[in-house]
Amino acid sequence: MLSSKTFIEKLHGHGFDFFTGVPCSLLSGLISSLEESSGYLPSVREDAAVGLCAGAFMAGKQPVLLMQNSGLGYSLNAFTSLNLIYGLPVLVIMSWRGCGGNDAPEHIIMGAVNEKLLATAGMDHDVLTRDNVDALLVQAVDQIKNKKLPYTLLVKKGLFDERH
């Protein structure tokens, strides 16, 4: 398990300073920590959060979007017609509901196609683990700064603490 507070400190250390998203129980510790420490702007839908992150980037911020993979369907058009076309980077922390077919029935299909959808859209991604967090954050920052593209870190159930 990875401490939400520690992960947020690592994000801050890499310059991330704007946080928004849509709640997910797998990310509840992160969201709770952000609400108490450095700010978190909740969004009504994932596609709206993509827009908030685009605006934050244009205002000089380095944004992070927290969302559940079920919201990828809502946000895919925003990513492809805004971020990918205009080079508006964002770090996406995406919970991977339905991973391996283990979850509530409504998450199974999206869990099975999640990585394929990201790849088809041209959005680089990796699966975040306790052991690769530092390396993946370096990789994410490199992609964001040099390629000006979104980078997604998929989070499986149990990686983060639920509350800090």
Helix/strand layout:
Layout: H1 4-13, E1 18-21, H2 28-36, E2 41-42, H3 46-58, E3 63-68, H4 72-86, E4 91-95, H5 105-120, E5 124-128, H6 133-147, E6 151-155
Parallel strand pairs: 1-2, 1-3, 3-4, 4-6, 5-6
Shape: globular
Query: What is the topology, as strand order, of the major beta sheet?
Result: 2-1-3-4-6-5
Which sequence of SSEs, written as H and E, runs from N to C? HEHEHEHEHEHE
Major sheet characteristics: 6 strands, parallel
CATH architecture: 3-Layer(aba) Sandwich
Number of strands: 6
Fill in the CATH topology. Rossmann fold
State the end-to-end distance.
Answer: 12 Å
Provide key terms for this protein.
alpha/beta; Rossmann fold; six-stranded parallel beta sheet; 6 helices; 16% strand
Structural summary, described in words:
This protein is of the alpha/beta class and 164 residues long. 48% of the residues lie in helices and 16% in strands. It has a single domain, classed as Thiamin diphosphate (ThDP)-binding fold, Pyr/PP domains (Rossmann fold), CATH 3.40.50. α1 crosses α2 and α3 runs parallel beside α4. The radius of gyration is 14 Å and the shape is globular. It starts with a helix and ends in a 9-residue tail after the last strand.
